[in-house]
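Work Package 4 report. The design task specified in the project plan requires that, given a folded chain encoded as C-alpha cells, an amino acid be chosen for each position. We show below one input record used in the internal validation round.
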C-alpha cells in the first residue's frame, strides 16, 4: 500500500494466504476500499453491515443457488468490498447466475481452492488496517502542525495549495467566488476539459471531494481534490478539511489587514462628503487607486446603524469587511465612508448597467440575512440607494439623493428594508415642496376633517381612504386589505363622503386628495401628526 492510501481489494491478493486465491468475478471492482473483515455464515446479514467490509465464508449457508443470489444482493446493496469463499468443503462450484450478478455490479468474488485459516487472514488484515489508521492520525497531526507554522509566513493561496499537493499528490482545484478556477498543478485547457468531464461522471465520485470556504458567514471559495488512481480515503477528507480551515484563516487575515489599510480611504471619503475636495481631486484619487468607472455607472448607498446593547465592542472594520465581501461578489467596487453612525457606500459598477439594481437588492438582502444582523450585533434603520449616475462628477448628487431617500421612507406608512431613489416617483416632486408653507396649509385644508374625526372617534378613516385610493376604488379589494367586512367599509365610505364631499372619487378631486395624502406623510413625520390639527 502507498502512504496514506486506503486498503483496496487488490492489495490483499499479494498478502499471506492469498497466494493461490483466484478472482472469478467482478474484476473491475478490485479497487473497492476495505475497512474491516467479517466472517459470514448466515443468510440475513444486510442490517449488520456498514459498508466496505471484506466478507470471508466457507459457503456453508450458500449451497442453494437462490439463497446465494439473495445473500450476494445484500452484499452489493450494503456496499461491501468483496466476497472471499472457500471451495471444496461445503461448496464445489460458484453458480453461473451468481458470477453474472457479481460481474454486472463489479463486485469481486475471490475463491480459495484449498482450506485457509480465516482467523489468521482476519488478524493479518486487521493489523494492517489498524497500523495504517494510527499512521494516518500521526500524519494528520504532523500536517496540521506544519500548516499552522507555515501560516505565519505564507504569502499567497498558492503556497497553501503547494503544501496540500505535497501531502496528497493529487489534482487540486481552487476557485474563489466570481473568479476563474485555479488548477494546481497547472493543466492545459484540453486536460482541464477532460478532468471536468471526469468530475461529472458518477462513477468517479469516490475519487473526488470538495469543501466550501466561508468568511464572515458568506461563501468565499471552494477547494476540490481529485485522485485518478485511488478512491479518496478518510485521511484525504480530513486533510482537505484542515486545509480549508487554513485557507479561511489566511484569507481572513489578508483581507482584515487590507481593510485596516483602508482606514485612510474612509477618512478621505468622509472629507470629500464634507466638501473638502473638488471633483478633480476625487477623480485623481480614484485614478491613483485604479478605481475609474470604466464605462459603467456608480451609485451611493447610505445606511444609519446602531450597535446593540452588549455588542458595543463590535469592530467596525469587521462590519466593513462584511459589506466589502458581499458588494464585491455582486459586481461592485466599494469605497466606504462612515460619519455620525452612518455608513456611506460608493459603489462603482463593474458589470452590465441593466442588472445593477437587482444585484444591489441581492447584496442588501444578504446583509440583512447575515449573522451580524440576525444576532442583533448591529441594526440598520434603512438603506437608501441614491440616483445611479454615469459620471464621477455626479456622485455627490447620488449621495444627496440617498440621504433624501432615507428621509422620505422614515416618514412612510410602509417602511422597507431598503428603498431606491428612482422608485420614489411622487415623493421626488414632494421633496421640492418641503419648505413651502402654503403647501402645508393646502394639505390640511383637504385632510383636516378626516384627521380630526379619527382623533375623536378612532374611526380609521385616514387608513381607509388611503387604501381605497390605492385599490382604485375596488370595495372588495379594500375590505380584504383592511381585514374588515364589506358592511364596515360601506359605513366608513359614507363618513368619508360627508367629510370630503360625495364627489371625492371624481377624477380631478381624487388625484388631488391622493396627492395630499402622500404630501401629508412626506411633510409631517409620524411623531408630529397628532399635533398638526391642534395648531
Amino acid at each position: 500500500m502507498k502512504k496514506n492510501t486506503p486498503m483496496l481489494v487488490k492489495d490483499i491478493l499479494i498478502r499471506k494466504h492469498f497466494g493461490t486465491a483466484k478472482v472469478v468475478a467482478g474484476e473491475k471492482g478490485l479497487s473497492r476500499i476495505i475497512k474491516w473483515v467479517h466472517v459470514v455464515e448466515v443468510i440475513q446479514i444486510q442490517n449488520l453491515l456498514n459498508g466496505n467490509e471484506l466478507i470471508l465464508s466457507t459457503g456453508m449457508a450458500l449451497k442453494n443457488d437462490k439463497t446465494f443470489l439473495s445473500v450476494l444482493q445484500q452484499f452489493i446493496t450494503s456496499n461491501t468490498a468483496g466476497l472471499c469463499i472457500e471451495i471444496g468443503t461445503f461448496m464445489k462450484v460458484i453458480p453461473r447466475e451468481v458470477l453474472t450478478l457479481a460481474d454486472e455490479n463489479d463486485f469481486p468474488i475471490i475463491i480459495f481452492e484449498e482450506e485457509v485459516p480465516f482467523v489468521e487472514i482476519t488478524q493479518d488484515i486487521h493489523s494492517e488496517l489498524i497500523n495504517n489508521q494510527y499512521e494516518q492520525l500521526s500524519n494528520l497531526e504532523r500536517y496540521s502542525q506544519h500548516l499552522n507554522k507555515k501560516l505565519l509566513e505564507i504569502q499567497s493561496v498558492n503556497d497553501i495549495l503547494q503544501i496540500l499537493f505535497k501531502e496528497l499528490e493529487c489534482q487540486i482545484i481552487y476557485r474563489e467566488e466570481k473568479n476563474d478556477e485555479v488548477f494546481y498543478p497547472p493543466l492545459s485547457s484540453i486536460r482541464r476539459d477532460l478532468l471536468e468531464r471526469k468530475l461529472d461522471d458518477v462513477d468517479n465520485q469516490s475519487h473526488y471531494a470538495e469543501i466550501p470556504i466561508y468568511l464572515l458567514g458568506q461563501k468565499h471559495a471552494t477547494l476540490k481534490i481529485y485522485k485518478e488512481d485511488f478512491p479518496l480515503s478518510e485521511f484525504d477528507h480530513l486533510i482537505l478539511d484542515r486545509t480549508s480551515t487554513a485557507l479561511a484563516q489566511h484569507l481572513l487575515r489578508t483581507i482584515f489587514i487590507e481593510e485596516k489599510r483602508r482606514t485612510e480611504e474612509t477618512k478621505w471619503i468622509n472629507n470629500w462628503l464634507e466638501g473638502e475636495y473638488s471633483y478633480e481631486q476625487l477623480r485623481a484619487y480614484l485614478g491613483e487607486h485604479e478605481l475609474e468607472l470604466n464605462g459603467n455607472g456608480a451609485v451611493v448607498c447610505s445606511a444609519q446603524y446602531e450597535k446593540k446593547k452588549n455588542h458595543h465592542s463590535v469592530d467596525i472594520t469587521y462590519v466593513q469587511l462584511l459589506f466589502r465581501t458581499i458588494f464585491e461578489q455582486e459586481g461592485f467596487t466599494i469605497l466606504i465612508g462612515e460619519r455620525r453612525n452612518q455608513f456611506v457606500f460608493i459603489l462603482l459598477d463593474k458589470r452590465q448597467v441593466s442588472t445593477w439594481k437587482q444585484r444591489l437588492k441581492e447584496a442588501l438582502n444578504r446583509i440583512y440575512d447575515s449573522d451580524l444582523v440576525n444576532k442583533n450585533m448591529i441594526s440598520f434603520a434603512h438603506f437608501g440607494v441614491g440616483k445611479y449616475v454615469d459620471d464621477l462628477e455626479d456622485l455627490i448628487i447620488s449621495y444627496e439623493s440617498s440621504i433624501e431617500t432615507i428621509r422620505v421612507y422614515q416618514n412612510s406608512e410602509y417602511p422597507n428594508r431598503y428603498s431606491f431613489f428612482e422608485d420614489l416617483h411622487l415623493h421626488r416632486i414632494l421633496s421640492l415642496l418641503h419648505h413651502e408653507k402654503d403647501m402645508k396649509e393646502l394639505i390640511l385644508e383637504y385632510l383636516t376633517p378626516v384627521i380630526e374625526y379619527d382623533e375623536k372617534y378612532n374611526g380609521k378613516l385616514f387608513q381607509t381612504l388611503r387604501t381605497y385610493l390605492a385599490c382604485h376604488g375596488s370595495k372588495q379589494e379594500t375590505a380584504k386589505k383592511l381585514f374588515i367586512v364589506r358592511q364596515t367599509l360601506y359605513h366608513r365610505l359614507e363618513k368619508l363622503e360627508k367629510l370630503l364631499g360625495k364627489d371625492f372619487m371624481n377624477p380631478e378631486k381624487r388625484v388631488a386628495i391622493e396627492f395630499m395624502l402622500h404630501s401629508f406623510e412626506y411633510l409631517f413625520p409620524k411623531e408630529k401628526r397628532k399635533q398638526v390639527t391642534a395648531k
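The chain has four domains: 7-126, 151-255, 263-399, 431-532. Validation will be extended to a larger panel in the next phase.
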